[in-house]
Amino acid sequence: MSGHRAFWPGLLLAVLRSVLLLGAVLAAGTTALPALNTDEWLIRYLGYPTLQILIASVVLAAALLLLPARGWLGARAVTGIGVALLLLAAGWNAVRLAPYLLPMVLGRPGPAVATGTCLVGERLRVFEANVQMTNQHDTRLLDMVRAENPDIAWFQETDAWWEDVLAPLSAAMPHGAVRAQSNYFGVHLFSRLPLEDVQVQDLTSSRNPSISATATLPSGRKVRIHAIHPRPPQIGQSTAERDAQLMATALQARADTLPHLVVGDLNTVPWEAALHRTEAVGGVGDPRVGRGLFITWNAKRTFAKWPLDHILPGLGVTLSDLRVLPPFGSDHQPLVADLCVPDAAPGLSKLDDAVLADVRSTIARGQGKATQPGAATPPGTESGAGKQAN
Predict the structure, then answer these.
(1) What 3-state DSSP class applies to 376?
(2) Domain span including residue 66
(3) Bridge-partner residues for 335, per DSSP?
(4) Residue 101's closest CA among 55, 162, 59, 138?
(5) Helix, strand, coil share of the chain (percent; to 5)
(6) Is 362 within 8 Å of 351 (Cβ atoms)?
(7) Looking at the predicted structure, is the pLDDT value of residue 6 above 80?
(8) pLDDT at res. 270
(9) Could you give the number of structural domains in the chain?
(10) What is the pTM of this model?
(11) Nearest-CA neighbor of 114 among 319, 322, 347?
(12) 152 and 225 in contact (C-beta within 8 Å)?
């Protein structure tokens, strides 16, 4: 009878150890796989929950170490391997997140985008929000925009319904461009500042437009805005289009002779190689480095949260403030940046020929590859053609 009583605790312990070891393998796998050079959506998506994998790895490692040291010698060895895998996963993810988390503890590393203050006429406030097309809690968003009083406001996932809702903002921000679509990739740029050289572009032939424009500040200084919303990695949709649009935008930004910035729900996280490459090619910096995570997605979930929305200032542009605003019904929260625009943009060195060839290859590979099949005409119909305001 005593042997029977001893059997069940031993079995439960073995099952628990097996579950924890499976968790160790999964944590190590989900940490390592995003390092592969592939466009596969699932592998790319695994790079997003880095903070969650870090926390899970630490918890699982602690649970394995706290298990009673019973069982055959091989079980203890396997447990040691599991703990080692979890510590490696935790360490790898900690390194990825260090530029955003360490400053809150150690005060370093320093910001990648310098902090600066400037005269009123040289300031630029940028408001960015993905409205979530099916969200119809418009009052809160409009109230936020009016309270923030931005110079530039960039909205994504705008369809015909949202265009009607946002229309009152034109009273304070009469300049801009719009392409309303009912496929979750409609866009609207509002500006209090006069705009010129406004372009509504389909950079990857996949019906998710971007907008670029040159804004003139009260001081007379000019700044080039590149506003984009690439498609996310998801079932049937690789990252080829997203990376192509990021690289096409980066090349345009690199060619700017004016100070510039890239803004939007970029569907990439700050520690992903795709964004690092965008920064290097486009001559833009990540204001999160040295300041924090500034999580903007998902406002409707407790644990699945990461920073998808970005305002990336070009070289010479400084930052005086960066804020995430409260939820307004969308799965994204708005991001607001106060910037100081210099009178001229520092020149960028010529791209290495091999790097340029690789960038162009990425752009070519992503043309019409947003969804499969029928990438050039994905589900959803446009509710309006591109329109521009002076």
Answers:
(1) coil
(2) 2-101
(3) 128, 324
(4) 55
(5) 40, 20, 40
(6) no
(7) no
(8) 97
(9) 2
(10) 0.90
(11) 319
(12) yes
